Amino acid sequence: MSKTLISIVGPTGIGKTALSLKLATHFKTEIISADSRQFYREIPIGTAAPTNSELATAPHHFIHHKSIKDPFSVGAFEKEAIAKLEELHQKNPIIVMVGGSGLYVNAVTKGFDEFPDIAPEIRTKLNTELETNGLEFLQEELKKVDPISYATIALKNPHRVIRTLEIYRGTGIPYSSFLNKDKRQRPFDTISIGLKAERPLIYERINQRVDQMLDNGLLEEAKAVFKHRDLNALNTVGYKELFQYFDGEWTLDFTVSEIKKNSRRFAKRQMTWFRKNPETKWFEHDTDLQNIIEFLNKVIKKTNE
User: Fold this and answer.
1) Which of 58, 93, 94, 238 qualifies as a FRET site for 302, CA 20 to 30 Å off?
2) Which CATH class name applies to 120-178?
3) Amino acid 183: pLDDT
4) Chain segment 242-287, per-residue pLDDT in tens
5) Rounded to two decimals, what is the model's pTM?
6) 4-112+183-304: what fold?
7) What is the DSSP string of 82-103?
8) What percent of the chain is helix, strand and coil (3-state, nearest 5)?
9) Three-class SS of residue 120?
10) What HEC string does 251-268 produce?
């Protein structure tokens, strides 16, 4: 039987975790998480990580395996996840992956364009220039040396601008020149399935989830990591807003409303990202499990013919 990865995508709060558990149980297999914030053990509530009972339902990987203090890039995740899949596929031809971080999902299913290693002092210098001269200064340099990237990347994201410039400064070759080369072939087939719902229902579920997080102790969890607020792992919805509250800048009611609003915006961005993949088969969030299993079995059977 050929090796298969079932990738479950969709917006936050749609029910991906519940479906992953049901599919892992049905196929008697294990789960890989592709959620870039559930990696961190200190913040399980605000990242809606699987509960202890859910984790006990099926073996999970890349859940709470890092500290917020540990640097962990998408590139590192790609390497570790592919190695783990190779190991798991020796025991079971079908593995389930679940997560709402589109970049991390793509890292596993498609791989990235390969870039050369760049001396770390180049990034250090760029970060210093960002602090001293501002983002617009770096944007202007990018416009001159790599107009293609300037026209396509998220210019308001300093991490993307710095990453693009460090490639140029380290190699003398524009970042855009490294794109769209042949990526590594994957030794498995991917079946991508997505969960969807009407936007008002998604937003309602998000609002309810935020309230549940607060009931579960999100405030205390955020207080415990407040002293580490500058870490990249905490630059995420829920914690950023609560840090404003701890600083005395916002009331708690306003903070909660901002968490809900920004979570809804995040869900919208997730759907925009995931809909770009024409190979994803979309199901309504309340589709009967058997219908999904029948679809998966049909695809797997066709692959093995």
Assistant:
1) 58
2) mainly alpha
3) 61
4) 999 999 999 999 999 999 999 999 999 999 999 999 999 999 999 9
5) 0.82
6) Rossmann fold (3.40.50)
7) HHHHHHHHTT-SEEEEE-S-HH
8) 55, 10, 35
9) helix
10) CHHHHHHHHHHHHHHHHH
